[in-house]
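User: Sorry, folds how?
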Amino acid sequence: MSKLDKLAKIEGMTVMELLEQGTFDSVVPGICMNPNCDYTTEVEPDQSRGWCEECETNTVKAATVLAGII
């Protein structure tokens, strides 16, 4: 399962619903890209190096970045 699929599942949406929501908001869900971490948080739509509170690394990517929209 990709991190984008996992993020959508955590948010209780399909990937399409997640991306549709992110198209109109100033923040979107993001997920940590480290293999053993699924920390999620709200980030700016173009975020590719957001802070993960769990790992303490800059590894959070926005759903829109993961989908290749931005």
